[in-house]
Amino acid sequence: MTQCICTGIQRKGEASAATINRAKPSATELISIFNGHIADGTLVLCDGLRSYHAFPGIADCTVKDCNKQEREEACFYHLNTVNGFHSFIKRRYNFYRGVATKYLNRYNALFSASYHNAEVLISRLCHVLLNVGGTDYYHTGKDVRELNLLAI
């Protein structure tokens, strides 16, 4: 059975993923998934499926088709944030050696929560490691234990 994982992610915020039990979700299914998750002024980048054009009914947002962009726009918009979340999910599926489709929405909720927490841990780790205000530019084993640097 082909399934679609509908994902939404803020550039520096929360991630959301939900599964639809077919390859192309309808406008009604998309509205039920993303209702309350899309704020006014949001830019929605999509793959050209007509169902995504129901989003302006939820909030005052703009829907852009990534497949039919003008040459100037193609250089401006990028999907790195969403692609990073998709890669995160794929790595987790590989780690678990696949998941039961019966529980796919539960895994998606877990991955959404862990993705946000991983981002927070990574930023904290970068802050500690790149803090060059001190006199030492290296960290001892004690620093690693006390600052929990390998918690990822």
How would you describe this protein?
This protein is of the alpha+beta class and 152 residues long. The mean pLDDT is 76. The strands form 2 sheets. The chain has a two-stranded antiparallel ribbon with strand order 1-2. The chain is globular and about 55 Å long. Helix 3 (80-96) packs across helix 4 (104-129). The chain has one domain. It has helices at 27-34, 71-76, 80-96, 104-129, 141-147, and strands at 4-9, 15-20, 43-46, 62-65. It contains 5 helices and 4 strands. The longest helix has 26 residues, at 104-129.
Name its key features.
13% strand; two-stranded antiparallel sheet; globular; 152 residues; alpha+beta
- What is the CA–CA distance across the termini? 34 Å
Shape: globular
Structural class, from helix and strand content? Answer: alpha+beta
Total number of strands:
4
The total domain count is 1
- Main β sheet profile: 2 strands, antiparallel
Count of helices? 5
| N-to-C series of helices and strands | EEHEEHHHH
Name the poorly predicted regions: none
Residue share in β-strands: 5-15%
- Percent helix range: 40-55%
Order of adjacent strands in the largest pleated sheet: 1-2
Mean pLDDT: 76
Radius of gyration: 19 Å
